[in-house]
Amino acid sequence: MIDSITFLPKYDATFEQNAEYLRQILPLMSNNKIAADPLNFAIFYEYIIGRNIHLNNELDELLGKQTVFTSELSIKLFKKHICDNSINSLEKINHTLLQLINKTGEAIDATGEKASAATIHFQNQSKKLESNQGLSEIKTVLAEIIAETQYLAETSKTLQVQLDESKREMQFLRQELAQARETAKTDALTGLFNRRAFDQKLTEYIETHKQNNFELCLLILDLDHFKQVNDMFGHQAGDSVLRYTANLIKQHIAGHHFAARYGGEEMAVIMPNTSFNKAMEIAEEIRSSLARYPLKRKDNKKSIGKVTLSIGVSGYKINDSIESLIERADEAMYRAKSNGRNQIMAENFG
What we know:
By secondary structure, the chain is α+β, with helices and mostly antiparallel strands. It has helices at 15-31, 38-49, 53-64, 71-82, 86-131, 135-185, 195-212, 226-233, 235-252, 276-292, 322-338, and strands spanning 216-223, 258-261, 266-272, 295-296, 303-305, 309-315, 344-346. The chain folds into 3 domains: 15-85, no CATH class; 87-185, Helix Hairpins, CATH 1.10.287; 195-346, Alpha-Beta Plaits (2-Layer Sandwich).
C-alpha cells in the first residue's frame, strides 16, 4: 500500500513566532517595493523562516539585482520552491508509467490478435486434412501449419522481448519513485527529515509502542538566539549554522533514531527503543558538542561566536497522543530557555 503524500507546505509556528516573522517580512517587502499579496507573502515567509536554501539563494540574488517582482516571477518562484519539487518527479514518473502500460498493452493485444488468427488458420487446416487424403495435399497443409507455427513463435519471442524491456523500465521507475518519495520527506536545507515525515514517523512509532510496549523518547531542540545570527551575519550564515547543527545531531544519535527539522530553527529526534536516561545522555552530548567551540564563517573565517541549544526531553506514557508527547517535550524546551538557555530539561513527571 502506497502512503499518501501531500505537497502542500506545512506551517506550524507558534503565534509568537509568526508575529516575529511578520515583523521581519513586511519591512523587507516594503523596502524592496514588492506587493504584499498572499503569493509574495508566502514566498517571503519561506525566506524568513530559512528552511529552503535554494529559494533563499535565488531571492538573495534577485534582491541584490533589484529585480522587479512581477506576478509571473512570483508564480515561478512559488511553483519552483514552495510547491514540493518532487511533484515534477512524480508527474514525470506517472507519465512514463502510463506510456509503459499502454505500450505493453498494445504489444499484448497485437500478439493476442495474431494468436487468434493463427488458431482460426489451424482450424481451417484441420478441416482440410479431414477432407483431403492425398499425399500432396497433406504436405501442403503441413507446410502451411509449420510456417504459421514459426510466425507465431516469432511473435511470442517479440512479445517476450517487449515484456523484458517493460520489466527493466518498471524497475527503473521504482527507483525513481523511491527517490521522489525520499525527496518529499527531506528538508532541503539540513538534509534531515521534514515536518511531514516527522509526523508520519511519530504516528507509526506510537502505534508500534501500543502493540509492543517498547521505550520511546522525544527530543525537541531549539537554537538559542538564532535570530541574532541571521540579523548580524545574514541568512546564509544562519543556514550554515542550521546545517552544521543538523550534521552534529546525526553524529550523536543512533542509527535507529529519526532526526527531523521541526520548524525554523527547531529540530526534533524520535528515539525508539531508548530509555529516558539514555535520551538525556545523548541530548547532553549534542548540547555540549555544539557549545564547546565558537563557529566560524566559511567565506571569511570570521567568528560567529558560540551557538547553543536548549533541549526538552519527553518519554511516551500510556494513552499518549502525538500532540501530548510533543507538548511535554516542547514545554521542557521552553523551560530550558527561560532558565538561561544552553541546557536540557526533562518533562515534568508530576
